[in-house]
Specification:
five-stranded parallel beta sheet, 26 helices, globular
Length: 753
């Protein structure tokens, strides 16, 4: 503190005017740590010409009661300096702060001064003797003196220094203290816009950077638990997707070795492990990372940088997706293609246990043993516009409206309309295994599982093969007895769904034929399957799946019909009729979308209800499950789905005027039963929205509202039923003010188990 006083005396010798000391909050004026003997009377010594305000008098009286053990030491001098009769901005000469016993002192300086003044003032910094200097609001091109100052960090001009006095008196000071403490490691809690605002206020410049947004797995979503994470000295910086299963014993071991942890996350263990291996002999950053990864059990996609090795970035994966985008003298690291397609379409899909070292726009890929491996460069064929909203309010609404076009594209690719033949060359790769197949197992998660449920009925209907559908997270642990001639179909939009991928590997280990439906070329599920059908839905940005679900569903119908044809279960005349009917689906879907205003009206009418039932029978029970899932995902409303006939076996007990039931009542062999279920609900004062076939006028007698869809064969009706269910969930979510594209607690690709 005597050095600060010495610096002030130096200013006084230059006859700088110290008048007009602004009123600052007590907590930012004088606080002391236990080793400081600064007395409040020194305030008057430092400001001999300044009037003593009531605030300062109270401060002097209460000074001795300050918590000196925990307080941050803040000594602030602010002055107005006359220059040719004009007032220049206040010189925030010092906010010297200490936030932990082991941390450095930092001098914060506002540079909004004439160059001669700021240059001269910085010239005396060696007299101040602090260990680090942070220059705010600098015009870097004009800071000629910066090379003379050791440990000077420059933050370019931004909003934080428009009024330095207000900065000290505002909550922005807290953010600034975090910034100083973390040395350009920015992290925020909540929506990405919070981080964006932080970076806009405190601009960061450099050639290499990493960042990560993720949901909380270990510890609550707090500032300390947000990524990136660092080692003890803030020199190794890590972002990580996945779960380190053995983090706790590793953390305890590192703690015993003297490492200090600042978060509850599993990720932070990686930073400290890398630090430990650097201490114990690792020659390079990548060598330390390779050693650390050998200790890890679990899944990871990581990116690591180090202050000791500037310009280098090391990335690695196991079980979580990671791709390298190859640009012009630049390399991108991402977990999914939409993040990089505005910049490049050339990508390398890293395999499990591979490590990429990136520096100066070049990269090398090795295994965990450090030996270089071969890799393929793939080209992403997605249109950049597919990752833009194109005038729609949300990506989800845009993707709902894209569904007719996606189905039309699949038809164009997979059907020869000259003779109505199906062209599914992917399955011909495993034709011999298909012809021997006695059983089909479909395994998937979430929305893909609902597509699989419909696929189960379609496969049995068109192929006469016994078909089971399994939830991947259960199937992977299940003791199942499978005929050697079993075809296992895996469905995953991203191709990186952890449970689906592991279940696929289980099937392969049993020697079963594997076939996958996937949206992402080169993804893990696609690479590890014997054959793959790409649904080509394009990038699906909205977290709640819509167009990928329809693409999966339509593809399953085509595959089932193709298998039935190969196995000669389906005659050509029947196949031709099926293909003709499927060819009309895009135009029928557009007709459903034409009822969007009616669906929005239903959303307006029922958006305040907090409990929904979804009922369906036969193939549309899965549609009911999908409708309930969409409402839960984006509108945060409790919704349950049941086969309609199960209402009387328990769920009917909860029916009241506070419950809305969405009843799928399209023309089918069970139509009369569904109408009976609706009457049971209405008799108990429940509200009923029906999704019915065009021309069905009698249903209006038994329900409150009707949404009509064109009439098709019952087997294909889920393709049309899905649209009003998606739109109903969307408009209810909008009316409730929910984050439609980025619902809370959800991730687009579920890469953890």
């Amino acid at each position: 503190m005597w050095r600060i006083a010495k610096a002030i005396e130096s200013l006084k010798e230059k006859q700088m005017d110290l008048m007009d000391m602004p009123s600052l909050p007590k907590e930012f004026i004088l606080k002391s740590v236990s080793d400081s003997n600064l007395h409040p009377n020194l305030v008057t010594h430092f400001y001999p010409k300044s009037p003593i305000s009531e605030q300062y008098r109270k401060l002097r009286e209460n000074f001795k009661s300050l918590n000196k053990e925990k307080a941050i030491k803040v000594f602030s001098i602010t002055s107005s300096i006359a220059n040719e009769g004009k007032s220049i901005t206040a010189l925030n000469l010092a906010v010297s702060l200490t936030h932990d016993v082991d941390c450095k002192n930092v001098l914060l300086i506002d540079s909004d001064l004439r160059r001669g003044n700021i240059d001269g003032m910085l010239g005396m910094l060696p007299q101040v003797g602090l260990s680090e200097y942070l220059l705010l609001g600098a015009d870097i091109e004009n800071i000629l003196f910066k090379s003379k100052i050791n440990k000077l960090t420059i933050i370019p001009r931004g909003k934080i220094v428009e009024n330095p006095t207000e900065l000290l008196a505002s909550s922005k000071m807290d953010s600034l203290l975090k910034m100083v403490r973390e040395k350009f490691i920015c992290r925020e809690v909540g929506n990405l816009v919070n981080l964006e605002n932080m970076v806009n206020q405190y601009p960061i410049k450099g050639k290499v950077g990493i960042g990560h947004t993720r949901w909380a797995t270990h510890g609550e979503p707090t500032h300390n638990n947000a990524h990136p994470h660092t080692d003890c000295n803030d020199e190794i910086i890590v972002v990580h997707n996945g779960i380190i299963e053995n983090y706790l014993p590793l953390k305890n071991k590192l703690k015993r070795g003297g490492h200090t942890f600042r978060s509850d996350t599993d990720t932070e263990v990686l930073a400290h492990l890398i630090e430990e291996y650097q201490k114990t002999g690792a020659q390079t950053l990548e060598e330390a990372i390779l050693c650390a990864l050998m200790d890890i059990k679990g899944t990871y996609a990581i990116a690591v940088i180090s202050k000791k090795d500037p310009g280098k970035l090391v990335a690695a994966r196991n079980g979580s997706p990671l791709i390298l985008g190859i640009g012009e003298n630049e390399i991108f690291i991402a977990s999914d293609a939409p993040a990089i397609i505005p910049y490049t379409r050339k990508v390398v899909f890293l395999e499990d246990y591979q490590v990429a070292v990136v520096k100066d726009g070049k990269f090398n890929i090795t295994g965990l043993n450090g030996t270089s491996v071969m890799y393929n460069i793939s080209t992403i064929d997605w249109d950049v516009r597919a990752a833009q909203k194109d005038g729609y309010e949300h990506f989800m609404l845009k993707e709902i409206h894209e569904q007719p076009k996606i189905v039309k594209n699949i038809l164009a690719e997979k059907i020869d309309f000259r003779n109505f033949d199906l062209k599914i060359e992917e399955l011909l790769k495993i034709k011999s295994q298909i012809l021997k197949a006695h059983q089909v197992i479909i395994q998937a998660c979430g929305t893909s599982y609902h597509a699989g449920m419909i696929g189960e009925i379609a496969f049995e209907y068109f192929t006469n093969l016994h078909t089971d559908v399994e939830v991947s997270s259960e199937f992977r642990y299940k003791h199942f007895i499978a005929d050697p001639n079993t075809l296992v179909i895996s469905i995953s939009q991203s191709g990186e769904t952890a449970d689906t991928l592991i279940a696929l590997r289980k099937a392969k280990n049993k020697g079963l034929a594997t076939f996958s439906l996937c949206n992402v070329v080169g993804s893990s599920v696609a690479r590890e399957s014997s054959a793959v059908f790409y649904i080509h839905a394009g990038p699906e940005i909205g977290v709640a799946s819509t167009k990928a679900y329809i693409a999966q569903l339509f593809s399953l119908y085509l595959v089932a019909i193709f298998l039935g044809t190969l196995k000669k279960i389906i005659k050509d005349s029947f196949k031709n009729n099926l293909v003709k009917e499927l060819s009309f689906i895009p135009s029928l879907m557009n007709k459903v979308l034409g009822s969007e205003n009616l669906i929005a009206y239903c959303a307006e009418k029922y958006h305040s209800y907090n409990d929904f039932y979804f009922l369906g029978r036969g193939i549309n029970y899965a549609s009911a499950l999908e409708g309930a899932l969409k409402l839960k995902e984006i509108a945060y409303i409790h919704a349950s789905a049941y086969p309609s006939g199960e209402m009387k076996h328990g769920p009917i007990a909860l029916v009241s005027e506070k419950l809305v039931t969405v009843c799928i009542a399209v023309k089918s062999v069970t139509y009369d039963k569904v109408i009976s279920n609706s009457q049971e609900i209405k008799a108990r004062k429940g509200k009923v929205i029906a999704i019915a076939s065009e021309g069905d006028m009698q249903i209006k007698k038994y329900v409150d509202d009707v949404i009509y869809i064109p009439q098709v064969q019952e087997i294909f009706s889920p393709l049309l039923v899905a649209l009003p269910l998606q739109l109903l969930a969307y408009y209810i979510a909008v009316k409730r003010g929910c984050s439609v594209d980025k619902p809370k607690n959800l991730a687009k690709s579920v890469t953890v188990e």
